Amino acid sequence: DKDAMGRFFPHADIADIIRNMRHPDNQSYNAHFTYPKGGAIEYIKALLHDLDDDRIHYQERLESVDVVNKVAHTNRRTIQYEHLISSAPFPKMMDMCGVDYDRSQYSWNKVLVYNLGFDRKGQEQDHWVYIPERDKVFYRVGFYDNIFNTPRMSLYVEIGLQADASVDIDGTLPEVLTDLAKAGITDTHKLVSWHSVVLDPAYVHVSESGQADFRARHAELSDQGVHCVGRYGAWKYCSIEDNIIEARDLARALGQST
Question: Is the model more confident about 74 or about 19?
Fold first, then answer.
């Protein structure tokens, strides 16, 4: 879907391209960035600031929802609710709510991410780089150390995978290190620490027919008091800022309805 990425993939015609060649203009959605120095976790800390600790329940997962009687079942207890707000991946939430839907309309990929720490600094000009070569295992490399101006190279490396692909974390790491050297990102650098995470889903596949089905199912759940929000709950590509605004607007709307 050519419109799937919205403002994140600016549309351009020939006139725009020629005009930008003559008078460079970088006024896109990501021309400027603000990074919390402590990382994105700072957003969470800010949101938690005015909440009592006993309002947050860790190691507890939602397993099923009775939308008729408005009862949520977790691995620990049963909760009666008036409104349930979910940021879980939308297909997963539909499964837990017993919604009948066309599974072929919902697809996504997953991303294997390595966080790599090295013994010394590398190049200093880039925050992240896209790698278009198919002979490299990764498609994007980011430089934490350049973002935060720290003295040793610290990278995040992203590898795109099909949703049903198997993941070999230990076996893929040597490929990553080899390809980083091939790309000129590392030379005699020594890896001193690493960590990995699999994002599943990572990027949802947006299509016109899929969005039509999503809107119908989303409205159905909303009418039953289940409100699905966020990048995965609302099954879209969006920013953290979008998520914050969406959550704020929903909170205001629900507050006015009570």
Answer: 74
Contact 62, 88 (CB under 8 A): yes
Does pLDDT of 131 surpass 70? yes
**Homologous superfamily (CATH) for 109-199:** Protoporphyrinogen oxidase, mitochondrial; domain 2 (3.90.660.20)
How large is the average pLDDT for residues 146-166?
Answer: 96
- 185 by DSSP, 3-state: which? coil
E strands along the chain, which residues?
62-66, 71-74, 78-80, 84-86, 109-118, 128-130, 140-143, 154-162, 191-199, 226-228
Q: Give bridge partners of residue 86 from the DSSP assignment.
A: 228
- CB burial class (10 A; 0-12, 13-18, 19+) of residue 87? middle
| Residue carrying the six token digits 């980011």 | 142
Locate the domains of the chain by residue range. Answer: 41-106+207-257, 109-199
Can the peptide bond before residue 201 be classed as cis, meaning omega within 30 degrees of 0?
yes
Q: Shortest CA distance to 167 belongs to which of 137, 136, 206, 203?
A: 137
Q: State the pLDDT at residue 31.
A: 65
Query: CB of 122 within 8 A of CB of 189?
Result: yes
Of 63, 112, 59, 109, nearest to 86 by C-alpha is: 63
Task: Identify which has the larger pLDDT, 243 or 4.
Answer: 243
- Distance CA(89)–CA(246), nearest Å, equals 16
Residue type, 76: R
Q: Which helix (H) or strand (E) holds 220?
A: helix 208-223
Q: What is the pTM of this model?
A: 0.85
Identify the DSSP state of 34.
Answer: -
Q: How many CB atoms lie within 10 A of CB 48?
A: 12
